[in-house]
Amino acid sequence: MNLLLLEPADFEAPGRVSLQGRRADHVRQVHRAVAGDRLRVGLIGGGMGEALVAEVSPAQVVLDVATADLATPPPAKQPVILLLALPRPKMLKRILQMVTTLGVEELVLLNSYRVEKSFWDSPWLAPEAVREQLVLGLEQARDTVLPRVTLAPRFKPFVEDVLPGLMAGRRGLLAHPGTGTACPADVRGPLLLAIGPEGGFIPYEVERLREAGLEACDLGSRILRVETAVAVTLGRLLPPQVGA
Amino acid sequence: MNLLLLEPADFEAPGRVSLQGRRADHVRQVHRAVAGDRLRVGLIGGGMGEALVAEVSPAQVVLDVATADLATPPPAKQPVILLLALPRPKMLKRILQMVTTLGVEELVLLNSYRVEKSFWDSPWLAPEAVREQLVLGLEQARDTVLPRVTLAPRFKPFVEDVLPGLMAGRRGLLAHPGTGTACPADVRGPLLLAIGPEGGFIPYEVERLREAGLEACDLGSRILRVETAVAVTLGRLLPPQVGA
After folding, report:
1. Is the pLDDT of residue B180 over 90?
2. What tens digit of pLDDT does each residue of B104-135 get?
3. Mind listing the domains of chain B with CATH numbers?
4. Is B87 on the interface with A (CB under 8 A)?
5. What is the CA radius of gyration of chain B?
6. Which residue of B has its CA nearest to A180?
7. ipTM score here?
């Protein structure tokens, strides 16, 4: 946790936060904070700054944090929509965190022929469960703004009815093996990146995505785990946000 | 497992392999192979091709595989040495696999001020434990050649005595936050990439690495997990090996 994220509901009075549970444990055990210390905090969807530790007890951690203390804006999102075939639940959690950490602005979890049907029943897809992973990703990156996450459990209606709207004003890329064209690096401007499931999108799906304007590009002959493919491709495509 | 990797010791006679344990389970349960099927196999350090399933029984899986069947060369390694501050054991396993999957030719696990001393006592650093993760990475990527992994538990002697030899003929890059120079993309030719521990290399260490010829470069203000930083940076630096 590189940033202690506060929710509006944590404020028991204006300027006064009371924490229990995971975040309070972290303040006690990792920061080993005592009254009088200052902690780096951010408000979900808002600014970042420092809070003053007012109390550390077994029951709660109390912080003093005025709105004026949260004057640092969060880092800008990367202008990229990631269209990802729904990964297996175990991997989903890590990918949600990672995608958030990397500053992706929107994630669409898409069905594909090679996505196991049971994945759509995972409890990890419940909105609260997804949000929990996103928050962990924000805490890691020092960001406060949740990415948008949407589910597209039906491939064809999504590609026909939703994808054209997402693609408006964006360059679309589909990371797909065997196309022979290397995925580009440092692409400027709004992007949409599609990454298939283990085993890849089937030819029908590739065809539909191409018709929607996505350019297929290749990451090489090595078969990557989905998680690795996401990080490698975003690392290539997105210019580092340096000196902000 | 995208490639069933065979060890010389698996051959009970020339051209005949007997498997037990994890790999036999995989053939039975994931491939659901029966006698007469063909499986994609590779020989550790050697070629790749197809084997004929001769027997599937609870006791063993027997494959017929002649040397001539293993005529496909493994993919070329990426000409990069990764110099990585020793990560925490839990992360080490995944990173060993990932680095192997990405085709890194050599990995040096380095001490740093911010590496917890206890990490060096991890059973996951034993040669057999490391090799196990590397093999999983090769199976994922469809490669047969183990990367070289060395340990550098003392920073200063490594940087003074070993690093100059590794740097000969290579461009050296150090991914380090706050330098203000974005890490380059698609670097051609032999590379050495250094990535610090959680919290980064300390200024003394950065100074020594720079003296050794490494250029510091920046991935942006977001704080990435080591695992993510490794994938993102390698994804940027290494041109995809397309159309091999």
Report:
1. no
2. 999 999 999 999 999 999 999 999 999 999 99
3. 4-69 (2.40.240.20), 78-237 (3.40.1280.10)
4. no
5. 20
6. B243
7. 0.95
